[in-house]
Amino acid sequence: MDLSSLTIPLLASVLAIAFVIYLIFNIMKQNAGNEKMVQISKLIQQGARAFLKREYTYVGIFVIIIAVLISVAPFLTNVELGWETAVAFVIGAIMSALAGYIGMSIATRANSRTTQGAIDGGVKGALGVAISGGAVMGMSVVGLSLLGLIFVIFIFKGNPSIVNGYAMGASLVALFARSGGGIFTKGADMGADLVGKVEAGIPEDDPRNPAVIADNVGDNVGDVAGLGADLLESYVESIIAAMAIAAGMGIVAGPKLQLLPLLIASAGVVSSIIGVIYVKVMGRRNPQSALMGGTYISAILTAIGTFFIVKFHGAAFDGYSIYGPFYATIAGVLSGIIVGFMSEYYTSSKYKPVRTLAEDSQSGAALTVTGGLSVGMASTAIPVVVLAVAVLISYHFAGIYGVAMAAFGMLATTGMVVAVDSYGPVADNAGGIAEMAELDPKVRNITDNLDAVGNTTAAIGKGFAIGSAAFAALALVSAYMKVADVAVADIKEPHVIMGLLIGGMLPFLFSSMLFKAVSRSAYKMIEEVRRQFKEISGLMEGKAMPDSAKCVDISTRGAIQGMLVPGTLAILTPVVIGLFLGKEALAGLLIGSLITGLMLGIQMANSGGAMDNAKKYIEEGNFGGKGSDTHKAAVIGDTVGDPLKDTVGPSINILIKLMSVISLVLAPLFR
Amino acid sequence: MDLSSLTIPLLASVLAIAFVIYLIFNIMKQNAGNEKMVQISKLIQQGARAFLKREYTYVGIFVIIIAVLISVAPFLTNVELGWETAVAFVIGAIMSALAGYIGMSIATRANSRTTQGAIDGGVKGALGVAISGGAVMGMSVVGLSLLGLIFVIFIFKGNPSIVNGYAMGASLVALFARSGGGIFTKGADMGADLVGKVEAGIPEDDPRNPAVIADNVGDNVGDVAGLGADLLESYVESIIAAMAIAAGMGIVAGPKLQLLPLLIASAGVVSSIIGVIYVKVMGRRNPQSALMGGTYISAILTAIGTFFIVKFHGAAFDGYSIYGPFYATIAGVLSGIIVGFMSEYYTSSKYKPVRTLAEDSQSGAALTVTGGLSVGMASTAIPVVVLAVAVLISYHFAGIYGVAMAAFGMLATTGMVVAVDSYGPVADNAGGIAEMAELDPKVRNITDNLDAVGNTTAAIGKGFAIGSAAFAALALVSAYMKVADVAVADIKEPHVIMGLLIGGMLPFLFSSMLFKAVSRSAYKMIEEVRRQFKEISGLMEGKAMPDSAKCVDISTRGAIQGMLVPGTLAILTPVVIGLFLGKEALAGLLIGSLITGLMLGIQMANSGGAMDNAKKYIEEGNFGGKGSDTHKAAVIGDTVGDPLKDTVGPSINILIKLMSVISLVLAPLFR
User: Fold this and answer.
1) Which of B446, B511, B450, B546 is nearest to B214 (CA)?
2) Cβ distance of B371 and A478 shorter than 8 Å
């Protein structure tokens, strides 16, 4: 491809980063609140930093080992891997880690400033800071990932087998951020709740609870860094899949089609910035409609931009019209919106499923849990049919290139989606700080209001993350089959069937390991909190401070230890299957895990979301309200649902993408 | 094929039926116990009859509609369906229904005789009657299904496109028996427990509880008729799949290979009879080892028989050795044993998973449930790998014919497996009768001992049912692709991907519907029991009888209503996909649902079994014993697990088989 054509995407990435810098200055000049608020915020910052430091140390070890293996691969076998792919891989990992670091640092600084914003300027003041905090993560994700990608394309002249390594680096960081982060956040949450609320009878976010800081850190670890790394990965992978597929399309259409996703990404950057500004301007009236409006505006602007980009920079190919990729992209955008809306339908207390679930809780916890599982299972139907139709449409208009472009269509506005999603934990933390700093309940009311809005957007974001992950993985698998020269992967062939069966099983095995890791981490936290309540004299009376750092450390260790085995499994399985059972079996493996992973991912996210909101609906005074037996049943449901929606479900996204990108990078090995 | 060669299988089926008649005489001449015992047994018999009558009425309507559609199909399209297939279909349905009717009638008559046997002859006396009761179901399943099949083959000269209809008939009855039966049994169970044990505080099986009879009927409906129809279907389908595949193998090898499964089935009949006799003779010492011993003996005898059958009646084909089918069969037998053993490992309180789960229950119900889900998910790993390897081995030795033979290898001893499984509910009912008739606690101890043995064998039977269902479905899909001329079903093609995605989703949607049906049925039961406690004066004092028939009626209605929508979905989806998206998409659909169905089936069976036995382990006095908070948590876990293992999980077996057999029968339509 013509490297000079990278100018526009390069400018877009620089624009995104400039916007991040502007937002950071904007946030940092806000009042961080009184001494106590600053102190609490500092504890959360320290906790977040401690987690990231440990996480990145382990990521670093994995990155080095894998980079060395990729570098020496040409000496062991005669494949087209080498130090160049290793360099791209390392840069991908660094860019994702850097985005996570910046996003977390600012999100944990925006929290007390959001609280102070609520004191000084009410909803408007709080929302402005919170959305800026979220947007730092969102725009860092797209800006840095795009910048790194362009750099890699530039220095390695767009050679796909090298550039693919970049996505693998992003994927490895996402594994640690999502699975590790998910274990961290739920281990801390369950530990804090089970001893604090249940045993000691103190309220949520009570400063006497040693695990509260870890719990607040966890919100950022899971929903800022985790989600950001997850979507960054999907974003990069769908671009790279489209480029890898386009690479084989001849010297006329090929370069143009390779450039297309980068140009659309540029349109997405500009649209996302406009979306964020819209939320900041309009948010003073109605936060909910501002957030939704901003999201839709950036999607519509991106769609319009895509039309003109395709018109002027597209190319007809393989019998498909020049507008084929446009239709495919639109199919992706629309299916993303529908999948997101279905998540809202099944998890919001505005609609029937959650209300029925709350009602069913009157007959005890068992019916809450089976009802919650059932809601999640039912919620797979429409999104899956929509995704399947989108695959068919995008393929119809632009072949497998279209599938990759549809995936990217869902992801072009990643900047805005992550901004809206990361806003949630900032608002949540702001509420926690208001509670811990014992501020006027009015302040907490404002932050609670913003937090509730964040819950809806988070549910939509989760549906979106799963849908786009499945689409991105499908694009990667298509690219893998193309690069590995898989002429046919026939489901009649026993190797393919074997791959499908084993692949289908992996998300179940992976899930069971993550469940165990969360429980183990929660148990350790419970013991530690009990110990501190017993041994630190004056703690329960509020006269002594708890040792929060110790709790953060326990969650961090639990997170890293808990994800090493499943992570290694995810990395090694495709390699082993590809080498020993062949490239067709590996294709089966990837598709098998994509199928069960997609279903489990949707089910778990929505089961968890529905049980969470059924509990909240009861807490609003329905079916007996707080403290009733119905509420107790719903609390059990929520505790079951929490690791489903925040640890296991999101991690499955990563599993299917990681295995697919590894297969794509190592495709020459299996040829 | 040479129809005279059907003599041996015909004799085997007659032998099985003769053995059934002998067993029935043997049971009926036993003392049925005192007046009260007879009265209770009569109520259970009446309830079972009422359920079967309603079920078979609805089955009849479905059968007639489908038979008419099949008969008129040639006038609408030019496919090779017609009245002959419809006749085979009706005969298949009748044979399965008849086996279920005989099995249920005798099982519900063997119950009080087992109780009396315990009074008169201790363990030995009780076991003898209970295993005979179970064996009536087991040998009816193989005897009648084989007889009907031979009849159909004989009158239609072995034409596969007609004979396939027979399997579809068996499948339709299995749908009603498994899904309807599953909803019946768990709706009744949950209703009886939630009002009786929890609200009214009366013990299990208390005669004052109006739902107790329905609960006891449910044990038979689910574990006798349901399991029997399920395995009968798999049994017939794996034979038919092998025959359909063999039909295209030329005039030399073809007929021989078509006959092979029937001859092996004959060996299986004889081996199963020997196995049952072994249990009756050896059971006086140790019931557990007698049951396991009988199962292994019949498997080993069948394997030996298979060797000689293949040696003298087999044929080399398509480059495979004459012994190819033997190796394939052995791969099936071995994988069945391993899958069964893994079920025991994950669900028996002798091993670590259940003990850890019981320990985790100390931290509350949420951790019991997540732990239980996690155990089930982990339990998918080894069985799936074993099945995948068995597919590879059987394919290696005998192509897709080998896959069908491996499936049949798991199922050749169906007579014995069903006998051992159906023994469980007879022993369980015997215990219920001892309780309700207020007999000496010693009697209950004996039946409880037999019941506990039954629980282990039931867990193994469930694992076995799922493994064999998946294998049978795979054989059917292979046969479908052969008959429908699916040259290639490439997972790169968007139609196949669409099929895989939608197929993968169906077991989730189907499960959510069944969950809802169970809850709805349980709610209605709860209301009715509450009403009777309130309105029937003297009931709680034991002076008046409850209206048990009303409760049976509620469960029956709930069962039929609850399975109509998911059942229709299962029947129509393959037809719609096949007609509108094509035969390749349908192949994808079947494989997709097989993958997620297999995983969910194993997970649910083992999650449910593990939570059930964790509760029992705590009741034995561990971690606080009965009445402790740990026990309460475990009871919630068990209530969540019950519909998983007894309704939803087993119904998924049927879903994947039913869709596959419909596709096979209608394959000419999609060609």
Assistant:
1) B546
2) no
